[in-house]
Amino acid sequence: MLESNLVLVKGIDFDMTNKATQVKHRLPATLIIALCLSVSCLIMPRAGVSGMSALKSVRSDIHGIRLGMTSAVVHKRLEKIGRKERDERKRQEVWVLNNDPRYSHIIVGFDPDMKLRYVTALARKDAAARNVTYSEIGDVKRAAERQTLPNNYQYIWKIKPQRNEPEGIVVVRGTDREHLASFSIKKVAAGED
């Protein structure tokens, strides 16, 4: 038998040893898991974006759509979550999202080679919307540029290219001090900074 603080996941025996006494509690597995998750949230840095472990960088995709993807790959992803509303000039498209609690539209633009040069998500404004905070996209204190005027907030981060992706920036804007109105990922043209 082990003589240490012990948690057995099935049937759960949770031993807590105190200097003076030893107390044995029987707890449900879901409570132990919840306690472990709570403690890990206190120990680990807060991840502002769902699906990211500790927030070390800014979010560089919107619904898995990343800079440099071909139009065929982008269309395949967008067809699963929405429908094309219209084509705009200069290889731009507006898509309406079906059941996204955060965003109502995604706008994409392609370069002459039909690779993604930008993607923008527009926040939902209806009563059922789940507002997205600026910090869910990136650490606002680490933004390369910050503009925080009354009713005009903008944060810009540089993103490092991964794999075959071009260099880019992330821009979030809004009129609310906590919640964004738009979230864009844009390719940086050669010579721009």
Give a brief outline of the structure.
Helices cover about 15% and strands about 35% of the residues. The protein contains 2 helices and 10 strands, in the order ββααββββββββ. The chain is globular.
Give a written overview of the molecule.
The protein is α+β, with helices and mostly antiparallel strands and 193 residues long. Helix content is 13%, strand content 34%. It contains 2 helices and 10 strands; from the N terminus they run ββααββββββββ. It has an 8-stranded antiparallel beta sheet, covered by helices on one side. Strands 1-2 form a two-stranded antiparallel ribbon. It is globular and about 40 Å long. The protein starts with 12 loop residues before the first strand and ends in a 6-residue tail after the last strand.
- If helices are DSSP runs of H or I spanning 4 or more residues, what is the number of helices? 2
Report the end-to-end length measured between terminal Cα atoms: 63 Å
Give the strand tally: 10
The gyration radius over C-alpha positions equals: 22 Å
Neighbour order of strands in the largest sheet: 3-4-5-6-10-9-8-7
Salient structural properties:
disordered N terminus; eight-stranded antiparallel β-sheet; single chain; 2 helices; 193 residues; alpha+beta; 10 strands
Helix and strand topology:
Elements: E1 13-17, E2 22-26, H1 29-43, H2 71-81, E3 82-88, E4 92-97, E5 103-110, E6 116-123, E7 145-149, E8 152-159, E9 168-174, E10 182-187
Antiparallel strand pairs: 1-2, 3-4, 4-5, 5-6, 6-10, 7-8, 8-9, 9-10
